[in-house]
Amino acid sequence: MLRWMCSGLAAVALLFAVPAIAQEKTGNKPGFSLRPGTVHIILMRPTIKVGAQSTGGMFEPNADWTAQARQNIAQALNEAQTSMGNQVTTYEEGESGEGPVASQYAHLFGALADSVIEYQFFRGNRLPTKVRKGTFDWSIGSGVTNLKSLAGADYALFINTYDAYGSTGRKALQIVGLLGGIPVTSGVHWGHAGLIDLKTGELVWLNADRQMGGDVRTPEGAQKRVRELLEGFPGRPTQPAVQASK
Predict the structure, then answer these.
(1) Cα–Cα distance between 17 and 6 in angstroms, integer?
(2) pLDDT tens digits, residue range 173-196?
(3) Sign of the torsion angle spanned by Cα atoms 42, 23, 121, 35
(4) Would you call 92 helix, strand, or coil by DSSP?
């Protein structure tokens, strides 16, 4: 009976099994570089989604967790801005009334980042136009250059994070999957951070990770998440080497 139950549940687990996900990937537009203290970057309002992963793998949003994450990530980003090498200011729509449009561009950036991951970072799925070495040609469109609330800035920094914490049922399914030799993930945590050139709308730098760390519901976890999102951020001053003790 136990063997039959395990076999049956393992078959169910197979329906919800998730393939292995690639590790963190980064990309830069060829020739792009930043020197410390040379540009003005506007940090756009991060797109943050936090919830639970149901037994069947569906996302169930949690308003309280999302509110905690927004507060924690905002604080972590505020602390990180002073070490990013260039002038970084938080987006303000002011009297322009462009807040909703800016939010649409944030979601568009998320879709663009997903496309980069799927069709350039994954070698097996690379589009013919992305195969050539040194190619990194992506854009959210030139319309973003017309936003009055971004006037005077050189680049916009967009950030997306998504967290689905495994429910009790999902964790139980993961255990059953292990018994049947079928991998089932419990929890999904990913994020994107990217720079958009405000003169052209082109994506010039992207850091995308499908297996991010840090529990964004806590201040410490949010700090870790922000460190991972901004890993390799261009224009940061080179850290001085630690002198070996004599």
Answers:
(1) 15
(2) 777 777 778 776 767 899 999 999
(3) positive
(4) coil
Instruction: Indicate yes or no: pTM above 0.90.
Output: no
d(CA 6, CA 61): 30
Which residue blocks in the chain are alpha helix, DSSP H? 2-16, 63-80, 99-116, 168-179, 219-229
246 and 94 Cβ atoms separated by less than 8 Å: no
Under DSSP, is residue 48 helix (H, G, I), strand (E, B) or coil?
A: strand
CA angle centred on 223, ends 65 and 138, rounded to 5°: 90
Over the stretch 36-71, which tens digit does the pLDDT of each residue have? 999 999 999 999 999 998 888 888 999 999 999 999
Q: Where on the phi/psi map is residue 181: left (φ > 0), alpha (ψ -120 to 50), or beta?
A: left
Distance CA 76, CA 106 (A): 19
What separation, in Å, do the N-terminal and C-terminal C-alpha atoms of the chain show?
67
